[in-house]
Amino acid sequence: MKAQLRPGAREAIFAQLIEAGRAEQVARRLTDAIILGVLTPGERLPSEQELARRFGVALITVREGLVILRDAGLVETRRGRGGGSFVIKADAPHGTLLQARLRGLAQVELSDLAVYFSTIAEGCAERAALRASAADAERLHAWLLHADFSTTAGARTNAGGFYLELAVLSQSARLVREQIRLQAEFGPLLLLGLGDPDTRAQVTGLNGRIALAVSDGDGQAARTLVADQVRLLGEWLLTMKARIERGGHLDDAIVDDA
User: Fold this and answer.
1) What are 64-71's contacts with CB under 8 Å, separation 24+?
2) Are the C-beta atoms of 35 and 184 separated by less than 8 Å?
């Protein structure tokens, strides 16, 4: 998915930080953007001066934040003409790592995370339907038209992107920040179900209906459809959790056709 097709998510990532002067906040915001696919492998970040301006922090704070990212192996800095800080291509989360994380969470914890994620996403969708202009709704439809949901990797990236676009259309800075945080924390697990072709097809179909509800200004319909979508993904995840506890393996239920 080309970055320029996701203007809302990119603006949210580079919005000013609430508490200036903390390099960790800069690093966390950029890390979330990389995890969520808003910043793509090989992409050059804005200049240090531009990042400082956008985040509303001192230049030294940005530099310290970039050091954290370099130490984590997420970006590299190149000198000379055409230089700058670039996102490093990283492998997708390995199934064994996600399986270990899934095994380490109790069923009740997974259910609670799904409920919380759904509550935030539902609120974003409802407010998006009530606040989005006709032009906003048209851009959302255009975004979906160009988004690739045909592969596992594409579906995971763009499903997360769709939730972020709804958050941006809600016009609530707090909802946007919380949606970004939740997707970075829980998204890799919740969106595992998109490796299943049937689940992916259902989620993709619901995206179109949610976008239509936003266009129609129907907040209740948008909220209900998002709830249905997250419930679908959450139920798949809980089923997989039960299968793993019986000795099954995550890779057996995921078609990594990316």
Assistant:
1) 64/23, 64/26, 65/23, 65/24, 65/25, 65/26, 65/27, 65/30, 66/26, 66/27, 67/23, 68/23, 68/24, 68/26, 68/27, 69/27, 69/30, 69/31
2) yes
pLDDT above 90: percentage of residues in the chain? 58
The verdict on pTM exceeding 0.90 is no
245-to-150, 237, 241 alpha-carbon distances in Å: 30, 12, 6
Going along the chain from its start, the domains and CATH numbers come out as 3-87 (1.10.10.10), 95-253 (1.20.120.530)
Q: Which residues of the chain have pLDDT under 70?
A: 1-7, 18-21, 89-97, 100, 251-258
- Give the model's pLDDT for residue 4: 47
Query: Would you tell me the crossing angle of helices 48-55 and 59-71 to the nearest 10 degrees?
Result: 110
Instruction: Say what the pLDDT of residue 48 is.
Output: 94
Please list, in sequence order, all residues whose beta carbon lies within 8 angstroms of the beta carbon of residue 38, skipping any fewer than 6 positions away.
3, 6, 9, 10, 13, 161, 164
Secondary element (H or E) of residue 86? strand 84-87
pLDDT digits (tens, 9 = 90+) for 183-194: 888 988 999 999
CA distances in angstroms from 241 to 14, 190, 191, 254, listed in the order given? 35, 12, 14, 13
